[in-house]
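RECORD TYPE: protein structure
NAME: F-box domain-containing protein
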Amino acid sequence: MGSNQRPLLVLQPSVSTTRVVTTTTTTTTYAPIPLPSLPQPPSPKDPKRYPLLNATLPSSLRQFPLVFPNGARATFRDGEIGNEEMQEEQEVAKGKGWRMLRRDEDGEDCPVVGLAEAVERYGKKRSLVEDSLMEGVESTAGTFINAPPRKKARGAHLPQINTLNAAAPPSPLPSPHGSPPPENIWPSAPPSGASSPQPQAPIQPDLALTTLLTLPSLLTQFSALPEPLQSHFLLTLLRHSPLPVLRTLHSVLTPTLARDFITLLPPEIVSQILSYLPFSTLARASRVSRSWRSIIDSDIVLWRDLLKSTDIWFGGESEQSFSNSIYARRRHMDTRTPLLPPSHPFKMLFKSRHLTRTRWVNNPRPKQFSFPAHGSSVVTCLIFSRGRIISASDDHSIHVYSPYNGDLIRSLEGHEGGVWALAASKDTLVSGSTDRTVRIWDLNTGKCTHVFGGHTSTVRCLAIVKPEMVDVEREDGSITREKWPKRPLIVTGSRDHSLRVWTLPRPDDPEYKCFSSEDGELDPTDICDVDDNPYHRFHLPGHDHAVRALAARGRTLVSGSYDCTVRVWDIITGTCKHVLTGHTQKVYSVVLDPARQQACSGSMDGTVRVWNLRTGTCQHTLTGHTSLVGLLGLSPSYLVSAAADSTLRIWDPDTGKLKHTLAAHTGAITCFQHDEFKVLSGSDGNLKMWDIREGTVVRDLLTSITGVWQVVFEGRWCVAASNTGEATMLDVWDFGLEQDDDWIGEPPAGLYDDDWFSSDGDDDEEANLKIRRYAGMENEESKQTDVDAMDQDDVAAYESEIEVDQDKLVDGAVRPNGSEFAIDVDITTAELQSLLDADVELLMPQGVPIPSSGLHSGSSQPIICRQVRSTSAVPPSRRYGLPNSAGPSTFPLPRALSTNEETPTRPRVRGTLARRR
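PREDICTED:
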């Protein structure tokens, strides 16, 4: 406030009511009591030292009502607002020896009585210690302006204020006298002569010390003030406080007064508030505190709406697949409680897609390096999996490189022909070659653990089918959600016109090789009996020409062939559901869209056809290409086709409408990959990046090279295989920045290889049983010879082998080992001799001869059979056992009988392959 302005205390009119017969109301008004203005600090008015010196008081402290302890009411007005509310037409208040000045009057010549002097003048008691209390304090008489009341009091006199009367109510204003005088702390001068030196007091009295000594009374008086006056008084003190004092107060008040509204409000309201913030503000807000970060990062509604509002919500179950992948990874992370709860996958997905959309376009100089690979051979396959670059070539080799420096991690040697198909899942790699074999590799060790034979020509395409939830239509027309397949499968297509389905071995499954390296250069078709392979499930014949492309998801397999047809298979039952005809020339590419229940195929006839998987009909025929459509790609929103006519075309997979034609290459498109933001395509010595939404070229990643063989990208990484002169090169780009270490890329087609997509296999009884049998057979070969005598004794008790059909068995309980069952005890000799389809052993109880005239109900005990090889259509999960209590568990079960091809320590196996092994 200014030095010439004073705070005022405007007393509320006193109302006295006397009721006799009539009611008389007397109202007495009082002129405002000017309060003494506070002096300015003695130091210079430096705004840097006194930052609040000229601060404006809030309106709530410039005028507010007061209620005194005795019930009296008043209004406090600070001098900054003046007396605007005083009525000009009011009569001038005056009294004996005083009158109120008008605003336009000059009061310099008028005698001025200070507030303290006025109180003392009209007080009833005087303090005898007044002078001692004010000792050392400068007199304020004459410095306070005490304006007389403007209106004469009516009906009552202004009560006198005596600050020294102990019986009076506590005054809201600090008393000029304060509390009783403190004891003298300065020692008296000792009695001595004039010549004795006077000792100096240890502390000289001054204003600061005197104020400090009166601090207890000041605190008591401050506590007696109403809260509005306390606020006004404190703010006035702060305006006269230097900056160091303010900083100290700030350090104390800030944590005390802090209130986190985000943590106090209900979650629904918090989510609504945060929904109005852009993602950049949310990112900064999440760094305010741990509680804010926990609330923001875990809000699924917030990030889902943000994905949709920024147009990066793709649909087609891609978001759910990402979430499932993140949850699968967390299950195998450190189980200790983290400092912060993990972010919701949608928040991580938003960051990933935002970085993918911005970094690839806005990073003008991504990190790039090149290194040679495979000499001068063609790179036939290129994949990026779990931070590994895996390339295959027609030089028979498979190489694994580091994307950080291009170092060769390991080289996988074993194929005897060019490798033309690759697929990876976690640390397992599957490869197909012109040597007609399928090999399984451990990427951690580089070891080939399995070699599958069975195809009679080049394995041209393959895929790993991972368990996922799919819609299954029942016989009654109802649709249920089930997980298929039960454990991961491998599907291979060959130039031998057929496809095969295999069980993907787990890391702890026994190794299997249809032939060993000791066999030398032998034809796998001559030495491999696929029936001996426990991992083989189905052989899918039907195509009349080479199988050129395939795609598989869930339990659906789509294959394209040079016979101009597309076939749809159920890989769980091995049946062909549809034969899709319409193409007039060879089919070179297929993609599968399980979300829309569609499949797309590209052909040498220049068309792309969209097929309905439920009905087997062609929904759309996409025309425009003038040459072979050799490549197809599918994302949730886009279908992209690449042809030998040097163009790429972008289609709407729902309607078949053409969105863009990418025409900047001058040669056949040799490779491409796309997502929801971009397309990377290689041709005629150039690698281009396109904006898939606009259909325009963004930049050239490679120029002036001989050709581009392959290109693949995921997240921040991009890898291309090209040919420069006589050398084959791999180029690697890193589009991320230093702060993008947690950038999680989305793989092509949303196929993740985390644990959620695998199964422990316990629910796939057929595959597990075959593998366990094979493992048991291998263990039997390694038994010690000291058990041979015992085996020979068991064999001597039996001399023949009888074959029976499982259709004649009694349906009963499942035996513990899953391979033993009871036969009907009432079977004639003719029936017994005619049952030749099943391969079983007849296990007779001790002392019971093998029957030669049939089995009859009069037999004393039932007969047990052991299954050697089932030829029945009944699935292995439906075994047969003896239903009564006198069942087979009481019988001694001897070993299988020996034949010419086996001994008790070497079980019988079939085929040339087994004999070689």
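COMMENT: The longest helix spans residues 345-362.
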